[in-house]
Amino acid sequence: MHLLKWLYPGMKFKRWLLLFSLGTIVASVGIAIVFNYKYIGNLEEFIFRTVYMMTGTYYYTVTAIVGITVILFGLITMLFATRMIIRSVISVLIPESSDKLVDLIFEKRKLNRGPAVTVIGGGTGLSVLLRGIKGITNNITAVVTVADDGGSSGRLREDLGMIPPGDLRNCLVALADTEPLMEKLFQHRFGGHGDLKGHSFGNLFIAAMTEVLGDVEIALTEASKVLAVKGRVLPASTQRVRLVATMEDGSIVEGESKIPLAGKKIKRVHLYPPDVDPVQSSVDAILNADVIILGPGSLYTSIMPNLLVDGIADALRSSSAVKVYVCNVMTQPGETDGYTASMHAKAILDHVGMGVIDYIIVNSHELGNDVRQVYAREEAYPVRVDEEAIESLGIRTIKADIVSETNLVRHDPRKLSHIIMKMIYKLRTGTDKVGLFDYYFLKEQLKKENKEKVKKE
């Protein structure tokens, strides 16, 4: 069965196997001519005589049956030999992956054909989504906020005068296709009592690469090679900015990490300085995308800072891509207290104008009482879906079970990516039925996830 995977649709292997077979047939005919083709006749006569001796009669279809059997045997032999030749080469180049060669080729072919997806946001929500999206396509670009000013990122920002690397690091790790040890290394935070305390290795690595190469975009590209990242991770801007919030009572709070702690209702947020140049690659990724996803993540402190960078919202409006906003499942204390789904979407439209959201994905799964009570202690509650108010904004609602519910409520990357994939198919083909090639791919992805889950357990 494993051998038959070479014949899966989209592998671009069958055409070369067929060409190899034709070449072998032509060579065989040439050999027969050189060595006198009468030997073929002798072989056919031998087959007839053998059948006659065994049955007492002639069966003229025997020749065809034997011929087909020989052809099939030859094809299987060529397929096996070709596979072993490729495997012998791969075992030298990437020995640790030689046993799953067909799976690697199958996955690579599928992912390279995937839609161009640009995801805009920051925080843990963005990295969760990216872990699911990388199972759909290699054509991913994460446009990441640079307004973070807390923790290790904030310290490096102040000490080195660079953009905060924390969200960039999380996205690199989320898109990485590398060993678990490397992921642990990048996420490792130093302990102790010195200056290194609290810093993550990944943040320091990005900071060092930026100083060595002199450009954060190049540094991220090189870091992506180390982690074997699927897709690209880009900052919305390379300029140092601060997020500033104007509250309903007229007070001003400066700093992304301080805004949720103010305990006041947010009226509007903006960047300082107000004129911030975007990274051109981020703009291009938005313009050339098939699908653009906003969120999930903190509305005012993770998603909004990207859209406030000059040119980002304009590119979003100009793009022919489908624009999807993934609404948070729970309200966020100090940021979206009491917000419904429509209020989340309206806040974005109020800041950057219409034309940046076509669809909103909201959770339809009923959360358990135990989980609700845990969040209620933090004054966080499920976001109510007010569908009519959403529709009045010119946005279509997609309800789905998109959460992974344990002791915390988080977006489930697999469920979310599956919903987005079905959306893409529906818009492209008019149906949400997945194609044959993608059926095989999803089947293999599910097997892979189950194996990884068992391994962790």
TrEMBL record:
First-listed, main subcellular location of the protein, grouped into a coarse class: cytoplasm
Assigned keywords, A-Z: Cytoplasm, Membrane, Transmembrane, Transmembrane helix
GO biological process, one term: regulation of cell shape
Subcellular location: Cytoplasm
Entry's Gene Ontology cellular component terms: cytoplasm
Transmembrane segments: 16-37, 57-81
InterPro entries linked: CofD, CofD-like_dom_sf, Gluconeogen_factor
GO molecular function, one term: LPPG:FO 2-phospho-L-lactate transferase activity
SUPFAM superfamilies from the UniProt entry: CofD-like
Keyword Isomerase among record annotations: no
Function: Required for morphogenesis under gluconeogenic growth conditions.
Family, as annotated: Belongs to the gluconeogenesis factor family.
Identification of the protein by name: Putative gluconeogenesis factor
Organism: Selenobaculum gibii
